[in-house]
Amino acid sequence: MFSSSRGGRRRSEDLVARAAEEMTAERVGATPAAPDTPDPVRGAEPVPPAAGPARFGPHALLVPAGIVALVALRIVFGDALRARIGESACAWTGCTGTGMAVVGWLLITLPALWAVVAVVLWSRLSAPARGATVLVGLAFLLVAWVHVPGRRAALYLLLDGPAAGATATGIRWGGVGAGLTVVALFVLTARAEARPRPTRGPIGPALVAAALLGTLAVAVARAEPPPVTVAEAMPERTFQAAGDTLRRTGGTDLRGCAGVLAGDVLDGCVRTVRVSYTTDDSDAVVHLAAVLYPGERAARDRRGRLPRGATQLGIPGGETITVTSTTGNWVLLGSVGHADGRTIAEADRGYLLWAAKQVAYRFIGRQVGLLVAPSAAEGIGPRTP
């Protein structure tokens, strides 16, 4: 029995030793786990975000590139763009004070309004739509920038045309509206981040809209009427110049210039002021037609194309002398003759043209804001010196 027990114990020890040897061999010949294999419990290790431009991909340089392009366009095309916008606005609105004030207000507020719309809808836009939104915003910003004077410049020096004052008023109050919009955008964004729960209603946007409309109303109310109508360009029914008294006998405002001259030689005009005056020292009757164009270059070009001897339509019959000139955006056509329409003698030309010169100077003085009486010269002067 004892020998049998010792034999069984020896066999058990042999089996344990063999199992230990096999386990050791498996550990030695085992292939180490791949370092990329994720732990089924811990999961994959997080990949740190790329630093520098690689983080944003090809869009990283769009903002600085856009700023550089904006500055370059402002320097190269700023003056031409501002003039083109002013001429187009004058043509669209008829150069009225209200219309040009609204245009000036929109020029400054559109970038801010567009930024608000872009921020609200940004998360819903596709990649191409976002790119288009940025480009449109940069275009609005460029348009506004060319109408903002520098440190050593004044706003009135940037603008041209008879409605420049109204446009400047709109720009100033548009700046106030844009500032309110930007401040409101920051406030609303900060409140939304601090209290992410939904608000009770669109009270904030409504207040911003009310403030914007308020600045627009103030701009329209404070805009000065430009001298583009009879009431503003030639308001006096009677005026004195160089010792003579002239009395207005008629006045008409026209949108366009139909019926002023035969044909289409005045095409491209915006509006026309027609007035008639007579003098107290003679029987001279002056018929002035002031034709407004969007820009000074257009006015000069049209005047250069006028045929010689062009006679105004719609004035009483009889012989007249017609003289043409330009002042700013205006082409002036002055026709003068005797009240009874009789033939003009050579001795009468001087005092007839003197009356026409007085009326033209009065109109020009209203345009530039400085009334100056003409001086007699080159045989043109009053009938009674």
UniProtKB/TrEMBL annotation:
Keyword Membrane: yes
Compositional bias ranges of the Low complexity kind: 30-45
Biased composition (Basic and acidic residues): 10-25
Bilayer-crossing regions: 60-77, 102-122, 129-150, 170-190, 202-221
Taxonomic superkingdom: Bacteria
Region entry Disordered, spans: 1-49
The entry's keywords: Membrane, Transmembrane, Transmembrane helix
Record-given protein name: Uncharacterized protein
Organism: Micromonospora fulviviridis
